[in-house]
Amino acid sequence: MSAAVWLVLGLALCAAEVLTLDLVLLMLGTALLVTAGAALLTGSLVAQLAVLGASSAALLVLVRPVARRHLAVPALPSGKDRLTGRTATVVQQVHDEGGQVRLDGELWRARPYAGGHALAPGTPAVVGSVDGATLFVHPEEPA
């Protein structure tokens, strides 16, 4: 095949990568571009197919995993995970029947975490778990 055909196919796959964002089409498109270079050097279809196979395999197996690791975005905590471990201030005494804490300017219902002791107003408390709109808190450990 001619270098122009390999070039057009390679550019088309690289452009199509924008739709998938999985890096597979980009790796295959790059392999086709390398094959276009090989087509300029040799007229042998067998050599071109060998270059295509080798470059595709190398890019998919060696380059793609590294590229994905560098592009990965860590998941941001949300929901319950966002609240767990945060420090709140006790507003109304927290005991087995209830209480209130202030976390980021918002009032939350609160109870002692894991059958803990009551917490007095003004005490810093760490959120141990969340159940609905109730925070289960325990005293902040001294530094």
Describe the structure.
- α1 runs antiparallel to α2 (24-41).
- The mean pLDDT is 90.
- The chain has a five-stranded mixed β-barrel.
- It has two domains: 3-71, no CATH class; 80-139, Nucleic acid-binding proteins (OB fold (Dihydrolipoamide Acetyltransferase, E2P)).
- It is rod-shaped and about 85 Å long.
- 20% of the residues are buried.
- With 143 residues, it is α+β, with helices and mostly antiparallel strands.
- It is built from four helices and five strands; from the N terminus they run ααααβββββ.
Brief overview:
The protein has 143 residues and is an alpha+beta fold. Helices cover 47% and strands 25% of the residues.
Question: Strand order within the widest sheet?
Answer: 1-2-3-5-4
Cα-to-Cα separation, first versus last residue: 72 Å
Helix content: 40-55%
State the order of secondary-structure elements, H for helix, E for strand.
Answer: HHHHEEEEE
Number of helices: 4
Number of domains: 2
Radius of gyration: 29 Å
In total, the number of strands is 5
Helix/strand/pairing class, anyone? alpha+beta
Mean pLDDT: 90
Largest sheet: 5 strands, mixed, barrel
Q: Quote the beta fraction.
A: 25-35%
Name the poorly predicted regions. none
